[in-house]
Amino acid sequence: MTKEKFKKALDVIGIPRLIVFCFLLAIVIVAYVNGIDVKSYLTSTMKYWGMWVILVLAMIPTIKCGIGPNYGVSLGIVAGLLGPLLSIQFNIAPAVNAVLPGFGPWAAMFFAMIVSGVLAWLVGIVYGKILNLVKGSEMTVTTYIGYSVIYLMCIVWFRAPFSSGEITWPLGGVGVRNSVSMETSFGGLLNDVLSFSIFGVEIPTGLILFCLLICFVVYLFFRTKTGLAIQATGANPTFARASGIDVDKMRVKGVALSTLLGALGIVIYTQGFGYLQAYTAPLQMGFICVASVLIGGATMNKATIMNVIIGTFLYQGLVIFTPPVSNQLLAGTDISDTMRQIIQNGVILYALVKSKGGSSNE
Amino acid sequence: METKYLLKMDNISKEYFGNKVLKNVQLHVAPGEIHALMGENGAGKSTLMNILFGMPVIHNTGGFEGTIQFDGQTVNIDSPQKAMELGIGMVHQEFMLIPGFTVTENVKLGREITTPTIASGVFGKSLEKLDRPAMASDARKALDTIGLNIPETDTVGGMPVGYMQFIEIAREIDKTGMKLLIFDEPTAVLTESEAQKLLETMQVLTSKGISIIFITHRIDEVIQVANSMTVLRDGTFVQHVETKGTTAAEIAEMMVGRKVEKLVDDAGKDTRTISDDDILLRLKDFHVDMPGEKVRGVDLDIRRGEILGIGGLAGQGKVGIPNGILGLYKSTGTVKFEGEVIETEKLGAALKKHIAFVSEDRRGVGLLLEESIENNITFTAMQIDGKFLKNYGPLKLFDSKKAREHALDMIKQLDIRCTGPEQYAGRLSGGNQQKVCLARAITMEPKLLIVSEPTRGIDIGAKKLVLELLAKMNREEGMTIIMVSSELNELRSLCDRIAIVSDGQLTGIFAPDASDAEYGMAMSGVKGGNK
Amino acid sequence: MNKLLNSLKKAIFDNKVIALFVVLCVACMAIAETSVSYIAAEVFSRFSRNACLVLSLIIPCLAGLGMNFGIVVGAIAAQISIFFVVHFGFTGLGGFMLCVLISTPLAIFFGWLVGKLYNNTKGAEMIAGLILGFFAAGLYRLFVLYILGGVIPFDDPNLLPRGFGLRNAYDLTGSLKYALDDISFLNVCVVIGIIAIVAAVVTSAYAKKKGQTVDKNGAMKKVVIGAAALVFGIVGRFIPMVNLLFGSSRLILTDVALFGGLALIVYAVIKILLSLKKGEKKLGKLIAMAVAGVLLMAGTVIPAVREIYQAVQLPSAAYGVIVLFCFFNNWIMETRLGQNMRTVGQNRGVATSAGINVDKTRIIATCISTVLAAWGQLIFLQNLGTFNTVQQQDNVGLYSIAAILVGGATVQKATNRHAVIGVILFHTLFVVAPLAATKIVGDSAISEYIRMFISYGVIAVSLALHAWKTVAKKDDKKANAE
Fold this sequence. Notes:
Number of strands of chain A: 4
Strand order of the largest sheet of chain A: 1-4
Number of helices of chain A: 16
Strand content of chain C: under 5%
Shape of chain C: globular
Low-confidence stretches of chain A: 357-362
Largest interface: A-C, 44 and 51 residues
Helix content of chain C: over 70%
Distance between the termini of chain C: 43 Å
Largest sheet of chain A: 2 strands, antiparallel
Mean pLDDT of chain A: 84
Mean pLDDT of chain C: 85
Oligomer: heterotrimer
Order of helices and strands of chain C: HHHHHHHEHHHEHHHEHHHHEHHH
CATH architecture of chain A: Orthogonal Bundle
Number of domains of chain A: 1
Order of helices and strands of chain A: HHHHHHHHEHEEHHHHEHHH
């Protein structure tokens, strides 16, 4: 009986989550014992949590509307890169600063968010319509659409008609350079708001509050009529139809919202990171987001905002704490990327097996 | 003297999750005869055949009780392979054919003729090479036996349905030692001439010594070809009769008739006034394209304040009617509600007119299994009428407090047995799930309530409660109700009039006290009485 | 005339993917203005490297598993075998065969695991295979970078300069490079001859023993062809002229075109004469064959074509193996196992009711694919001669799948023809597209993006179209169901 109970409990928690959690705990302990500066790594974990959480949040709408985790969030990410680039191109921060000192970065950030958001919403609607055509194979199709769009955009970035010296290739005069500094626009803006230090751990208050605010807005959205209709669509499309809901429309809305969040997420990410990276940087982001939300306790068809918050923390903790520890144990190596690869994909595989795949030819 | 039987199944009982679907049933089939197995849907025909064929669905759910004797031997059939080895074959209702393969490949599917290769010497038989000429000649022989003149090299995909049925049969008779063939509603998908040809083929087969179990609900076909028949009803054995010396009316009565049990106490006062002039819903030339439940032109008037029953066998289209009205499947014809046309192509148009629907597919369509009772009850009313929403500044958000109050009220009113309004609907018993569905419908304050198979899969106590609830709503609150059900008894104990649907069309509208034979004939497609 | 136009239209429509890529290739060539002989040489050598990997995709596709992204695992098996073989100092053909021996059981084991996974993710095999590829690559990295030498003692300063963790790139020159490619054509003939004769004799004897009818005609054919190849292979080396032309391991395309064309003409003419004698009328194919032969031969005297011919060298053994792979794919589909695979691929429900063990069949299909992929990767690496120990496997699935899809395969149907055409087109585009892009943009950095975009784009479009068709069909079926 107890064995069964144990098994049931294990099923609820999920083996991968347990492994990840224990692994993280062990690493933190090893780090502490070995005299590694845990506090500074905790500081970066906080910071990276804030940078990633909106991107991971983008998984929620698609899971809730029945499409599953959005591997193609890279579409939103790529669209979202345009906002920050344009805000630099148009010199928004310096221009506004000249009129209203101190407000420049804010203006730049909100400009970037609005541009990225609107573009992503439009992209999301088109993308959602495509996904309605490929019901049952969304995961495979989204993955490859995401990949190909990233490479297509690589070609575009390479020769995009930007003219700001901060963006273009140092020699070329056009295009987007590998990493564009956000220094003059809104780099680190949110991180520094109200930040304080407690027991030597720096808390990026502004960033965290902003992220929680977005989470709360998404939470509220899912309590509106449309939000509830989207959830019913995901839980049982025929039920939704029987309640007079246009299922395809709801799916498009879910995808558009996810894409929008992906775009907002990359704006936040960029401000935290301090640099904007176009090209192949978004390639793995989709997978990282999927893995994060799954680690947080979501499945292929059920996810909550709490899953996002916890999952992002666990995943980022893992990524940040592994390198120093592995360096300590096996001098001169960095096993973290390998571990990340194994854990990230292992978690996704586990979820796939648990959800017993998709359509069939039976 | 006892007749010698090829197949003797005795005292067969089967339970699915505590639900007894077969009770001490027997089935005796003589060699070389066509034996009809008859009964309404849910009578237990398919379960009995699944047992005979050793289907995994039986053995994964705890097996069955009783004995099977085949060819004089007591046998234990625990897999389809075992059944095939014994010489039992099945012609499935859904074609087990592969469209991309040729006729030969389909006929020899899984039983290909092969010749050895070097690899097969090392790795076993599966690497033996196909002997296509030998396979083709076998297939030809089987096709000739049943008189199907098509090239065996043709691809099956795109052939008419009738041909596919014959290819299935060819496959079965190609198996060596075939003694007993099961035909599961083979004529359901065929045109009249194809069906006639099939019946002739069946007789050809029996002349070769093969016994046939013929599952059908078409009485005329049974009288035409069957030697004897077994009738099942509600999972119990009714009778084994010879076809000679019985009539269509008698057969119909055997299928339908049952001891009348009072399902509803008629204690409540009946204060309704029903008038033929006060039509609430009018269907004209109504067609619905619902797979498996096609409706082909129905004219029907529903009077305000009555309970109208729609009965008929499964697959005949009765379920298609409500699904068509609600716009869940494509429909043509006119639907007029209170004199206004409902645009059925617009999803939710009927809901907006306050027509509520409780689906026959409770778990598939009727509920969000992984959501709370509360959400289930309030959902449709919120989406359609904007109930349970509250303004927070510019936002209209879900009003949990009001929803909770309403859910608690419904739980009390309908006596839903649960741990509370937050319990997942999927965790409830069938009867309570049905009550949640009804609660959802009532929450919409409907002018017309359509319930489809309201008592399917729920126990007898809950059945009674659900039916009484419907009666109460009708008698006391004057709610007009359309009740679609396969359980004639249930309809007869509750409805004012009962319409019978067969092959997508109305075959009659009867008073609840019309005779069993009348109902039986109407259900097997004979147009008749009209009240 | 109208009929001809219509059939032409239909032909183009049926092969629209191929047509699209042919147009793309030609356009890129026109822009790039690179010499055709360079492109031809490059494409033929890429073909010999990649074809086997692509051919390994066919069997699981027919078994209903879709595009097997899990072939990455087979590539990993091959790479592991190479480490050990190189470590123990085996070189040349012997070393290569040892690699085959080691990698095969490994690949079967890996394939079995992958098959199990696929059975647990029915309907989502492709995404599962893709993620599995990443996952397996992670485990492999863990193995070669940390466990090998770190946990398991493995002392080889050449492979593991730091004591643990394989070096990043490894040069196979002097060990396995060209191990297969260096076999001379005459030796290939000898091997093929022996295989054909042995196969014919043993099969007949076995059939006789089992008391079944012996396919005498087929056996005779095999023996004759085998004997001819054997005699050519043995005697050829003593005839200076033949030895000069065919004694080397790499044949010049000019010679192949000349003699291949001749052989085609002779074969076609004999067949035509035989058919005429029998009074058969269907000669279109044979005539086309003869014309093709003439064209091939004519190429050798046209200077422009001859230049291209001269630039291309064909490693005979690798091409021999490609032909064997094609034969194997066809052969297995003619066995009971193959028929079961096709049935499972078409409809699992029907397969079960016909008494076929669906799960087992799917696992076998995956295992075969993984083994073929492992061998394919061995062929790839021995030709390339150097490999990136950590990342070599990463794009195996991507490029192979993109190639077969370009050849006109779909998620449900793939043939040898699709694979061969696909490899040629995909790699032509792979060579010329970056050149064209560089010409337009004036910067070569962009070429990698273009390659990746083509690969991913091809797969995305093909998968989306397939899924769309499936959805449409389902709706259609629903509407038609009674």
